[in-house]
């Protein structure tokens, strides 16, 4: 088995860059994008632009009786399924383009599997809808929202929807050829399409979860015991980050889509610091 390119940051040791990873090249961060989308939501709510409990029909052309609010979307309690309909096996989100998204709002009521607020079901589709809602509410593109409400206040630049190919890091396939990453530039972007350098993520995570420079952590962060965390995976990249109340934190990015292995490595690093409880591990690494 070949070595997996890995980048590790934490509060108590120097950065580790292994097997060809890099701290200053852009990598896919998958569903860790949701934590940033959720932070945009929190900042817009704090500014009075949106209300967390506002129904979607205030912003999108959806049936008025869906009962879905922005809070439901952020907490994965909207009743929407995990993924949009009609995905493909390879490069799954390529088919979920703008035309598919425009046709979606009128169907939301028929897509829900439970009543909003009744149960939690992790939903990439829900965060795609949340992103579209924030864009509509603020009247600006997603990247501009992200920059204005998250990146600029934290003085970060190396997080983007469209990294330069010459500064991007891809996993390698047969004969060392770069693999084509999943297409996540369309409506799925707020749910999992962002790219960032590990160096930028290593500034972002403690700023949001430890120093709390933008206020309390957004609703999008997963909570297990005392641990705030999120992970993410695309076809060829996976990431886990988490922080504890005592200020310990970890970030692991690997050029490999096996998110459970990335989760396990990150949790082991937190345990080694003797600062995290054994109960802090996510149950199965399922979120992505």
Mean pLDDT: 91
The N- and C-terminal alpha carbons lie at a distance of 24 Å
**What is the 3D form?**
globular
The largest β sheet comes out as: 6 strands, antiparallel
Please write the string of helix (H) and strand (E) elements. EEEHHHHHHEHEHEEEEH
Name the beta content range: 5-15%
User: How many helix segments?
Assistant: 9
Fraction of helical residues: 25-40%
Structural class, by secondary structure, is: alpha+beta
- Assembly state of the chains shown: single chain
Provide the gyration radius in Å. 18 Å
Strand line-up across the major sheet: 2-1-9-8-7-6
Segments where pLDDT lies below 50 for 5+ residues? Answer: 274-285
Number of strands: 9
Which terms would index this structure?
288 residues, six-stranded antiparallel sheet
Folded structure, characterized:
The protein is of the alpha+beta class and 288 residues long. The chain is built from 9 helices and 9 strands. A 6-stranded antiparallel beta sheet has the order 2-1-9-8-7-6, with helices on both faces. It has a 3-stranded antiparallel beta sheet with strand order 3-5-4. Strand 8 and strand 9 form a beta hairpin. About 4% of the residues have low confidence.
